[in-house]
Design goal:
It is built from 4 helices and 4 strands. By secondary structure, the chain is of the alpha+beta class.
Length: 140
């Protein structure tokens, strides 16, 4: 049986994750650029620009190097929400490798901060390689 592992990870974690999968002999994968937000509702000014306090009425407007905090100041926003750019990695593996792959992805992507990502695991009914017609494990 096959399973699809979909991991939504930070952009800077793609290369180490790909190297880890390659080391396991799993070179076939799909990577997509995605944007989203989690339970916190997306990045807010204090997440992206920690040196600016949440109560920034007294903070002078920043005009150089536009940051989320300076955008908020210029546009009179108190909690600007930004979609978070991420990468979505999809890989199909034999079900016996599922735990090993998930553990490797978790170990390389966990920073302890909000936005580390998510992993979804789904069963795959069948798989076919279009070029050769191979099915199942041979097509992965």
């Amino acid at each position: 049986m096959l399973v699809e592992i979909t991991a939504i990870i930070r952009r800077d974690k793609v290369a180490p994750t790909m190297r880890g999968l390659d080391a396991m002999g799993l070179g076939s994968m799909t990577i997509t650029t995605v944007s989203g937000r989690g339970l916190q509702g997306g990045n807010v000014m204090t997440d992206l620009d920690r040196e600016i306090p949440a109560e920034y009425d007294a903070v002078s407007k920043i005009t150089r190097n536009l940051t989320p905090a300076s955008f908020a100041l210029v546009h009179s926003l108190t909690r600007p929400v930004f979609w978070i750019p991420k990468r979505m990695l999809q890989i199909v593996v034999p079900s016996g490798m599922k735990d090993e792959v998930v553990d490797m992805i978790m170990s390389l992507n966990r920073t302890g901060w909000m936005g580390d990502g998510k992993i979804f695991i789904s069963p795959v009914e069948d798989s076919l390689r279009i070029r050769t017609g191979e099915r199942g494990l041979e097509s992965v």
